[in-house]
Structure formats: C-alpha cells, structure tokens
Amino acid sequence: MPSSTDSSVVLPGLVTQAERLIELGVHASAGITADEMRAFAKKAEGAESALLAVHPDRAPASVLAPLLVRDGKPGFVVTDMPDVDEFTPCAVELPDAPLYLVHGVNRGDDMANWSPEEALPALIGRGRSPLVLTEGIHWILQQPAVLERNHCFMTIGSRLRKPNGTLDARTPAIWISNGTGRDGKERRNAPKVGWCWWGNRHTWLGFGSAATRTS
Q1: How much is the pLDDT for 49?
Q2: How would residue 1 be classed by pLDDT, with cut points 50, 70 and 90?
Q3: For the chain, where are the alpha helices, taking DSSP H only?
Q4: Domain boundaries, the chain
Q5: pLDDT at position 6, please?
Q6: What's 169's DSSP letter?
Q7: Whole-model pTM?
Q8: In 126-157, which positions are buried (b, 16+ CB within 10 angstroms) versus exposed (e)?
C-alpha cells in the first residue's frame, strides 16, 4: 500500500466503510440503524479519502478495540487501562453528531521518537489536530495494513482529565503486542491499545493526525 504517512492515501469508499462497520455491529453498539449509517455514507460519498467515524460517546474504545484483528487475533486494551473510555477529546473539537468524517488521516512517522509533549504543538503548528483514540481504531478497522510493526502511532487527541482538572500523564497509543508480560503469549502480534507517558519518546510510534473533521 502507499505510505500511510501520506495524506493522499486512498481509503475505501464511504459506502464500503459503512458496510464494514455494519458487518462488525458497530452501528448497533452505537444505537444507529444500518439504514441511517448507509444513508450518511451515501450522502457523503463524494468526500475523497475520508474516514467514516462514529462519535466516541456512541462507540467507545472498549467496544471498538476487540473488533481489530491481526494474524487472526483480536485486538485488546491493556489490563492497566481499565479507564480507557474516560480518555476524552482534548485539544480536539469533534463534530456534534453520531457520525462524522475525518479528512487527511496521517500516521505521523516523521515524528517517531518525539514525545507527545513535543508533538502536540508541532501538529497544531502544521494546521493539523491529533487523532482521538477511537478515530485511530476506526482507521485500522478500514485499513488494517496501517498498523505495521515498528511503525505504529499514538492518538494523543484523547486524554484523561483528573477530578482536580489536571491531565493524566498517560497518552493512548495503538501498536502490536509482542506477547510479553501481562499481554500473554497468546496475544503476540495482536493489535494492542495501550498508553505511553506524556514526556516519553518511542522510536516506533508516530502521531496519528487529521487535517479536518466534518459532519
């Protein structure tokens, strides 16, 4: 496939994306009928290389992650992230709609070995915004090959706000499990939703981002 860092990478058509989500049962989990999802996709079909996303309030990461599959193994959320659905959009404004489009998705390989703290202002300076976790999962559901070993990505548009108003230092990311530690050997090569520290760098993690979002 073309480099997933290239914003011109062509996603499946929106009608095809809608059928994929319907096949996985995402519409039902989100309280959206199959006909509503099809109608939205059909109306927006002219949007070039756009990603169809369900708002995280309707389809949270805990619901979407197990739908990811790699080497026949389902995706999972790390055991020390039971609060994954409490990571909500931060520094990102999502359309106020159950279904919306994400334009110009980019894996951000050029930012590999940057910390989230360094990457966020750089993305904003480029006129882009970081992907939220559910958008990253939606992208992989439609283009599984975007998740490559040694070329995975963070989704720092999702952050957890503590009761005192400060942000948790964890930042969500999606990568491929090595089957070590608490992941378990049976999960080796499975898609993994985990987290990294706000100030840490990782050579194998870029930063997923978008150009715009529309409803």
Answers
A1: 86
A2: very low
A3: 14-24, 26-29, 34-44, 61-64, 116-125, 133-142
A4: 14-214
A5: 43
A6: S
A7: 0.95
A8: eebbbbbbbbbbbbbbbbeebbbeebbbbbbb
